Amino acid sequence: MAKPSLQAVIHACLADLARSQPLSPRQWQVCHHIGTCRTEALGGLRLECDGCGESALLYYACRDRHCPRCQRLASLAWCARQRAAVLPVTYHHLVFTLPDVLNGWVEVHPKELYDRLFETVWATLSAFGADPKRLDGQLGMTAVLHTWGETLVRHVHLHCLVPGGARGADGRWRPAKSTYLFPVRALARHFRGGFVSRLRRAVDDGRLARLDAAEIDRILDDLMARDWVVYSKPCLTQTETVVDSLIPRRRAPQPPHCAERCAPRRLRRRIGDPALQGLPRRRAREGHAPQRGRAVAPLPAACAAERLHARQALRLSGQPLPCPTPARDPRRDRRRAAPDAGN
What we know:
Elements (H helix, E strand, L loop, with lengths): L5 H15 L4 H12 L7 E5 L6 E5 L8 H17 L6 E7 L5 H6 L1 H21 L11 E7 L5 E10 L1 E3 L5 E3 L8 H21 L8 H13 L4 E6 L23 H4 L67 H8 L6
Antiparallel strand pairs: 1-2, 3-5, 3-8, 4-5, 6-7
């Protein structure tokens, strides 16, 4: 049995989906690109062997950022470049999540909110890194934007890979004192205040003109009353694999509608699909993938904050820095030093 592909799903189901759910021009464009990728519709080349005369057709690719066939090699190349730039220090994986109240705003003004998300997260981490009581230096960051969750619902969050240290004004490396980088509650409050204030400025400047003016102040006040979520965890594994912490399931980034999601698979835990809520956590069922009867919103064509977008906020260059050793986990040292129970 041939492996199902996203292109086959689009050909089979797009017409029915369009009758039940209106699609935006951008969604139609992305579906058209994926549906015609490497087909006669885009043209191609005919290759012919000079010796035996055998010929083969090679069709052109769509090169759309949402196409799983076109972006696979680009994803692997991006991961290779990031691994080459990793420093021999302990890294920290941080995740900044936007509240679901803003999903409607992301729908109508995606570029503005994605740009403000990158800007606010970098301003927050820079402020904590420059604090004399903390690192007192210039921090570095690599960030990857994720706009959906595991069940293909909108879930905007930014994965950040931050080295455990900063570059001081004298050019020397200042490592973090332990595997603990910054307090997550303080990060969440700073992130919340900075993002809401930037949204207010965007409203005053007219950059969010498509929103309901009567609801803006109420939603912004509600955002300030909420507890925002920030996740932080040190990467104590090998330095060559810290980039994998940015990628779900330790693989290269892929579009949300990659070919693997179209194939039947075993589900070994409950997820958001109501049909699976009554199943035991460890029980497996065949062919019940969490498919949603909706189209995942694509990224805007002119958006600078792409899903596969990495912003290297600091490139440590110039004179080579000393190679600091990764910080050790004190709990691991205590376990090693503990006396044997049999003695």
